[in-house]
Amino acid sequence: MALSGCIPFYLQLCSARGQSDKTVAAKASNLSLFSAWCEQHQVSSAEDIDLATCEHYQCFLNQYRTRSGQRLCRGTIRNRLTAVKLFLRALFNRSLITDSGFEKLELPRCGRVLPKPVLSMDEVKRIIHQPDTETAMGMRDAIMLELYYATALRRSELADLTMDNVDLPQQQLKVCHGKGFKDRLVPIAPDTCEKLRVYINQIRPKLTTLCSGNTVFVATLGKPFRPTQLSELIAGYIKKAGITKGGACNQLRHAAATHLYEGGADLRAIQMILGHADISTTQVYVHVSLCHVRKIYLRAHPLARHKL
Question: What pTM value is reported for the model?
Answer without folding.
Answer: 0.70
